[in-house]
Design a protein that fits this description.
Blueprint: E1 16-25, E2 28-38, E3 43-47, H1 54-62, E4 69-74, H2 80-86, E5 87-90, H3 102-106, H4 108-112, H5 117-128, H6 146-159, E6 164-168, H7 176-192, E7 196-200, H8 204-210, E8 213-217, E9 224-229, H9 238-243, H10 245-260
Parallel strand pairs: 3-7, 3-8, 5-6, 6-7
Antiparallel strand pairs: 1-2, 1-4, 8-9
This protein binds adenosine-5'-diphosphate and magnesium ion (MG).
Length: 261
């Protein structure tokens, strides 16, 4: 590159910047000096002991809350209002409306964006098959398994059309088999519909399967103890992935940090 050429494309600029963030609740310091930087291609997993400030940090990034000190910016937006516009949040509990069927629930985000209900239904119907929901479009939440409800919830989160997806222990309420199934499914779904994502989980294997970066937080007050880069081969089963030596090495290092904190 010569000196007269423009700088590299903006895709390498940080999409999410968290700089020196401190958050207190009364006398409790929930987060003590968190700093991280993500590009638009990043999928970050955050692991840490219960109560270390993971949900608090996610809430601050999303714009639902503000830090007491420090700077947070999401795609150039540093006010909480601006960050809210960029982020979609998928909660631990699916929060589906019991009186709406699968497509009706999935379509809510589009309706909130001003799309007419019928059109919104059609648009999510096109995606429902890819989300393993074909044949279940007109079922109600009580007729679905926990895993299916989370797929609907994910479809709704994705249809919000936001650049950044935030997941707070999205599979925390599911049994381990459904959970394992959905982890690989989500990995594939995010390959098809790439987004900048942050996933909070207390499950180290889930963190490694879904993130290209894993941040380990210390016990309260939460600090970022370490960041790991993850690069696993594509197209492998979950079983084979977790048996890879590099997977085991990372898992042991992260578990070691968590046990020590
Ligand atoms: N709204 C709140 N008011 C008071 N304390 C809170 C509030 N939200 C979180 N906390 C406290 O902050 C700490 C971090 O909470 P949280 O972010 O939920 O942890 P995690 O998600 O890692 O389990 C905890 O001690 C929790 O009790
Ligand atoms: Mg939490």
């Amino acid at each position: 590159m010569t000196a007269t050429q423009p700088s590299p494309p903006v895709t390498t600029a940080p999409a999410i910047q968290v700089q020196g963030v401190i958050k207190r609740f009364g006398a409790t310091t929930a987060i003590q000096d968190a700093t991280l930087e993500l590009t638009i291609h990043d999928r970050l997993s955050i692991v840490g002991p219960s109560g270390c400030g993971k949900s608090t940090l996610l809430g601050i990034i999303s714009g639902l809350d503000d830090p007491d000190a420090g700077v947070v910016s999401v795609l150039g937006e540093s006010t909480s209002q601006g960050r809210l516009k960029k982020c979609a949040w998928m909660p631990q509990r699916d929060l589906l409306l019991p009186w709406r069927d699968v497509l009706g629930n999935a379509a809510i985000s589009l309706e909130n964006r001003g799309v007419r209900a019928k059109v919104a239904r059609q648009q999510v119907a096109d995606l429902a098959g890819r989300f393993g929901l074909a044949g279940f479009e007109d079922r109600y939440p009580y007729q679905l398994s926990g895993g299916m409800r989370q797929r609907v919830s994910f479809l709704r989160t994705l249809s919000a059309g936001k650049e950044v997806l935030l997941f707070d222990e999205p599979f925390g309420a599911l049994d381990s088999i459904t959970r394992a199934d959905l982890q690989l499914w989500l990995r594939g779904a995010l390959d098809e519909e790439p987004r900048t994502t942050i996933l909070v989980t207390h499950d180290v294997e889930e963190a490694l399967l879904l993130g290209n970066k894993v941040v380990v937080m210390s016990a309260r007050p939460g600090r970022i103890q370490a960041t790991f880069e993850v690069s696993l081969p594509e197209g492998m089963s979950r079983r084979d992935l977790i048996r890879l030596p590099e997977f085991g090495d990372l898992r042991d290092q992260i578990l070691g940090l968590l046990e020590a904190s």
